[in-house]
Design goal:
By secondary structure, the protein is mainly alpha-helical. The protein has helices spanning 2-31, 43-48, 51-84, 88-100, 103-114, 119-126, 138-162, 166-174, 179-207, 211-215, 224-234, 238-271.
């Protein structure tokens, strides 16, 4: 009876997964086998392995890696510092609140800050310095992307660090370990699960960024997300756009599998 009740309660979940996960993926896969004239073909998959799309893929991975690394470098010490404060929840809330603001609004805010007549250039002009072209550069694109993804990196790392047993750190100090050894042997391995979760939450969506590339990078940065948008909305080549989306999904699955395996290893070491 209890088993039947659980199965019945799972029906909405299965329906949701089929309608909004499985069906869209199958639809994307279906359209990937048609050219712009609607003819069945494998040409889209052949085109993906040409220089243009391979270069595009490498560029996406490069920028996603940079965004993830810079986000991690900022998020990890920030999360660690928050765990040491008395008002943890308050500081965490102050970091989370900006993530509730609409992404488009935040992007336009940075256009105002980085523009030729923006706050930074006005300050440079006040100091007697020449105005700089900050907007539509790699710097502005990575800066804004890192700012947007920081809360999603901090949260899982904070949760992992906050669950650390203080007795382990005390035992490490009592045994004469330095702060670096304590971090490398205890803190980092035990909190690595949070780091991996943060990388998943940052790297995967960073691969498919498209709005920021247009508004902040001025289309000078092309990612897989930008290519999909152009294929669907500009060239109307739904087949090629779907093919790129298929490979993007494959890349995401591979990343999740890799990080999932590593996380298991960390837990085993952590338990030890």
């Amino acid at each position: 009876m209890e088993t039947k009740s659980r199965t019945f309660l799972m029906v909405p979940y299965y329906l949701w997964m089929v309608l909004f996960v499985v069906a869209p993926i199958l639809l994307v896969g279906y359209y990937s086998f048609f050219d712009i004239q609607g003819n069945f073909t494998f040409e889209n998959y052949q085109n993906f392995f040409t220089g243009t799309y391979l270069s595009l893929t490498l560029s996406s991975f490069w920028y996603a890696s940079l965004i993830t690394v810079f986000t991690l470098l900022i998020a990890y010490p920030t999360a660690y510092w928050i765990t040491k404060t008395k008002q943890k929840q308050l500081w965490l809330l102050l970091i989370i609140i900006p993530s509730w603001i609409n992404l488009l609004l935040k992007t336009y805010a940075f256009i105002g800050i980085f523009g030729m007549n923006g706050s930074i250039n006005n300050f440079l002009s006040f100091l007697g310095l020449e105005r700089q072209q900050i907007l539509y550069t790699d710097f502005s694109f990575i800066f804004v992307s890192v700012y947007i993804f920081i809360p999603f990196m901090i949260l899982p790392i904070f949760n992992a660090l906050d669950k650390l047993n203080p007795a382990l750190l005390d035992a490490s100090r009592d045994l004469g370990a330095s702060q670096w050894i304590t971090f490398r042997k205890i803190i980092w391995p035990l909190a690595l699960g949070g780091v991996k979760a943060g990388i998943q939450a940052t790297f995967i969506p960073a691969l498919s960024l498209f709005m920021i590339t247009r508004l902040i990078a001025g289309n000078k940065v092309i990612t897989l997300g930008t290519a999909i948008e152009q294929q669907f909305l500009v060239t109307q080549n739904w087949g090629m756009g779907s093919t790129i989306a298929v490979f993007l999904i494959v890349f995401m699955v591979i990343i999740m599998i890799i990080t999932g395996d590593r996380e298991k290893g960390v837990n085993q070491r952590g338990n030890y």
